[in-house]
Each structure stands twice: as structure tokens, then as C-alpha cells.
Design goal:
Helix content: 25-40%
CATH topology of the domain at 151-273: Pseudouridine synthase
Number of helices: 9
Distance between the termini: 41 Å
Strand content: 25-35%
Number of strands: 16
CATH architecture of the domain at 151-273: 2-Layer Sandwich
Length: 307
């Protein structure tokens, strides 16, 4: 578990902010952020006031990365790219979360390194990571300005015969019910969303198509929902397609690999972030995943990969 509780001691009455900066070597902004997140406690009471005072014994919850030796596929002085497997989260969802890609990022590059964009736990493929705060600002701005071209591969049900230009608004309900808040749907009250779908290869023996998906906007579950909307759901999707009872069982981690294979056609979501194209400091980068996605798809479906 990467989150650990450290026992600390303040010998004098002093500002909690000053104490953490001197005791742990944190920057002022980092110490402020962690206090605001409730990481510091004294006598069982959470210290949320960054200008509050502390004295004596206290406890501080900190993130100490653990590594499993997973290395980036591409590295520069300012950024790196990981080719993430399906099932690995980029960030911990809570303090109880186990190993995530964030462990490897922090372990290799330090506390200032961060993933610069979102990618679902179920989705495999490329994750762009900044190595310092300056490059983080630049890369996140490039994403917000749509200056980074992302292309995905997906194996979907049915025969996609022609390119599809999907422009359907997507709506997500901020609701305490996890199922309701997680599921995104096409709805006129939603936010603008635009995805281009290009068929690459049809497999008639299994009635499925390998497609390239290019999201021109960055909505949650955008590619998954848009493909489900046009009647070509991604094989192995545990949320868009299955019965609600099975979706709930998946969310609660009650669905076995065998059941998932039987109900969705695959033990994983067959969606892969395949390439990134962008210009950084006047140099153009085209980074392509090294994974054999078709081979991984067929193995996850229990089929023999094509030659």
C-alpha cells in the first residue's frame, strides 16, 4: 500500500505549514495542498487549516511509491511515455488503493512528475507523463488546446463498413450512487463530443471489426459510449452493453474472469491508446505503442491469434 502514516513530533508550538516544510522538505504549495487534503492529524483530529498551529506528537499520511519494475517506453529530459496494460490504474482512487502507475512515475522521476491526461483503468496504451512542473503546465495546455492528436484501436462487435463521424453530446450525472455517476450516456443536455471512427480490418468468422478511433474532444468514456451508441460496442466493455446487474457486479468486483468472458466476450476491455502526436519545444513527436494489440485481443477472447 503506497500510502503510509508517519509519526512526527513538533518540539515547539509552531504553524503546521512551517513544521511540514522543515520536517519533510516540502515546498510551501505542496505542504498547503496536503494539509488541505487532511493528511495531518493530532490527537485524532484532522488539521485542515494551513495556518493552524501544532505542538507535540502528530501523524502525517504520505505517499511512498512502490515499484514493480515497470519502465517507460520513451523518455526525454522533460517527459516520458508509458505503455500501460489494461487493469492498471494511473492514479490511486483512495488511500486504500494498491499499486498504480503513479507509483512507477514517482519512484523513477520524483514527486514533481505526473500523468498529464486521463486514461481509464480498463484501457491499455500510451500515457504521457511530465517530469517536472514546467513541462506539466506545457503538456496539459497542449491537451486542453487539442494540440495533441490521440488515436486509439478498438475491437468492436459487428461489421463497420465505412468511416463514422460521431457528434453526439455526452452527459454524466454527478450522483452519490456509484453506478449512476459512473455511466455516461448520449443526451441533449450533455457536453459536445466528437469521435471519428475508421474501420481497419473485419474478422467475418467472429463478426467483429478492428477500428481506429480519434477523439476530437476529451469526454469521460467518450469512445466507449459513442461506439455503443452506433451499435458497435467495444468487446469486453463491462459497463456499456451488459445487463445492469452484471455492471453492478463488475463495479463491486464480484464478476469472475470466466463470467466476464462469457457475458462480454473478453476478459478485458478491447480498447488501446495506440499513438500520440504533438510538438514540444519546436520538435515534433510521433509515439506509437509497441504492443501487438490484435494478439492481446484474441488471447483475452480465448481465441487463437491470427497469423
Amino acid at each position: 500500500m503506497p500510502f503510509v502514516t508517519k509519526k512526527l513530533h513538533s518540539p515547539v508550538h509552531q504553524m503546521a505549514l512551517t513544521f511540514l516544510i522543515s520536517e519533510l522538505g516540502l515546498s510551501r504549495s505542496e505542504a498547503q495542498r496536503l494539509i488541505a487534503r487532511g493528511r495531518l492529524t493530532q490527537n485524532g483530529t484532522v488539521m485542515c487549516d494551513q495556518f493552524g498551529f501544532i505542538e507535540g506528537d502528530c501523524e502525517f499520511i504520505c505517499f511512498e511509491p512502490i515499484t514493480q519494475g515497470f519502465k517507460p517506453m520513451f523518455v526525454t529530459n522533460d517527459f516520458a511515455v508509458y505503455d500501460k496494460p489494461s487493469g492498471l490504474s494511473v492514479h490511486p482512487h483512495s488511500r486504500q488503493s494498491p499499486y498504480t502507475l503513479n507509483d512507477e512515475i514517482k519512484h523513477l522521476f520524483g514527486d514533481d512528475a505526473n500523468a498529464t491526461h486521463r486514461i481509464d483503468q480498463e484501457t491499455s496504451g500510451l500515457v504521457l507523463v511530465s517530469r517536472n512542473k514546467k513541462s506539466e503546465t506545457v503538456l496539459k495546455r497542449l491537451f486542453s488546446e487539442r494540440a495533441i492528436t490521440k488515436r486509439y484501436l478498438a475491437l468492436v462487435k459487428g461489421h463497420v463498413e465505412h468511416a463514422i463521424d460521431i457528434q453526439e453530446p455526452l452527459y454524466r450525472n454527478d450522483h452519490p450512487n456509484l453506478l449512476i455517476s459512473m455511466v455516461v450516456k448520449v443526451h441533449p443536455d450533455g457536453k459536445k463530443a466528437h469521435t471519428l471512427i475508421k474501420p481497419l480490418q473485419y474478422f467475418p468468422e467472429h463478426d467483429m471489426t478492428l477500428v481506429e478511433a480519434s477523439p476530437l474532444t476529451g469526454r469521460t468514456h467518450q469512445i466507449r459510449v459513442h461506439l455503443f451508441h452506433v451499435k458497435h460496442p467495444i468487446i469486453g466493455d463491462p459497463v456499456y452493453g451488459p445487463e445492469e446487474e452484471d455492471v453492478i457486479r463488475f463495479i463491486n468486483k464480484e464478476l469472475s474472469r470466466g463470467e466476464r468472458l462469457e457475458k462480454s466476450g473478453s476478459t478485458r476491455l478491447l480498447l488501446h491508446a495506440h499513438s500520440l502526436e504533438f510538438t514540444y519545444q519546436n520538435e515534433k513527436y510521433t509515439i506509437v505503442s509497441e504492443k501487438d494489440f490484435i494478439k492481446e485481443c484474441f488471447e483475452a477472447m480465448g481465441f487463437t491469434p491470427p497469423l
